[in-house]
Amino acid sequence: MIKRRDILKFAATAPFALTAPAILNSARAAEDNVIIGGIWSMSGFATNIGTPLDSGSRYAIEAYRSIFGRKLEYVLADDRSDPGQAIRQMQELIAKRGVKYFAGSTSSSIALAVGKEAYSRKAVYSTVGGADEITGKDCNRSMFRWPASTYSAIHATMLPLIEVNPKAKRWYTITGQYTFGDSLLNNVKSVLKEKGLEHVGNSYHSLADREFSAMIAGAIAAKPDVLVICNFGTQTVDVVRQAVSFGAKRSMQILVPWSTGLDQYQALGPDVCEGVYFGANYWHTIDAPGNRVLRDLVQKKTGGVPSYMEAAGYGAVQMMLEGMRAAKSSNPELVIPAMEGLKYEGVTGEETIRPGDHQVIKPYILMKGKARAAMKDKYDFAEIVASDKAFAAVEETGCVMPKG
């Protein structure tokens, strides 16, 4: 016989009993999501870079929506422009959310730290860092790179410039004294030595510097034919603007081998950019199916066109999603080998992940700033002068890929 206290006990628990399946189903649905973690600098010195990279990552999630029937989810972690903070954020996402896939970071020093941590945690990390070490001596099975290396940037920009300007014998560099800047500088020196050209001087600056007039005065005094600016982000903008205001364009050519493309053109304006050479991983006019997808997304969201940083954030996430699609799995042990040698339609056309060092093989372009009067629209800042897949052979990178 059912006793009154049993009826009361059932009545008390009934609401939970009725709602429990919905709660459990919701929890299971969340667990079934494939989560991508974006580790970008939303504060600190690289905030201006982190924001569009994060936007690009979100565009990739929106473009794919799901992978083999599982919903995609994106979570953002702010590394505060600090390698230690980036590792802590990664560890937290792994521990609390079980995240196995990460895109980042805004600097090569952060990328190298996160890549090492990803390998120890058996995760997958797709980076936008440019230092040669990423796919060189510090390569590992967990780390993949979407943009070109600094080797590629220097060879794809300097060699065409030397070809069209054979009288450019004397070269001066202004360099950020950090991993990425030194990597650019070392490649500049290598090309100059190979071509028998003269490196007449270098000025180092720190990440904190914003005033470069003394360095530019020193560069002008050295009377170079070409000034090469080996840094990134807002410091590139500052150096170019100050060099032009000092009249550097009248006596030398200016080369920025690694630019962030459209956003830097917009920050500088056509009058400053006219005649200045810029290297870039991406330009919005590239006619490729993958780029049309990104352009359409950006047009709907902002009414504009994609920047390099948006394309890089998109590309970093896309390559992991294509790997999962190829593996038909979200298990890193299956996805990593599926990514090695993978070909897919990216924002620059067909992109290939090289197995030996996990470098994405795609074109790197050299552009020259247009005069204001030559611009066809408000985004038409430059003409493409050259495009090249200038990558060192795997055996020359220093990468010895671990087997497991």
TrEMBL record:
UniProt KW Signal keyword? yes
In terms of InterPro entries, this protein maps to: BCAA_transport, Leu-bd, Peripla_BP_I, TAT_signal
The organism sits in which domain of life? Bacteria
Task: Give any Pfam family that matches.
Answer: Peripla_BP_6
* Keyword line: Signal
The record places domain Leucine-binding protein at: 36-370
Supply the PANTHER family for this chain: LEUCINE-SPECIFIC-BINDING PROTEIN, PERIPLASMIC BINDING PROTEIN OF ABC TRANSPORTER FOR NATURAL AMINO ACIDS
Q: Which family does it belong to?
A: Belongs to the leucine-binding protein family.
Q: What is this protein called?
A: Branched-chain amino acid transport system substrate-binding protein
Native organism is Paralcaligenes ureilyticus
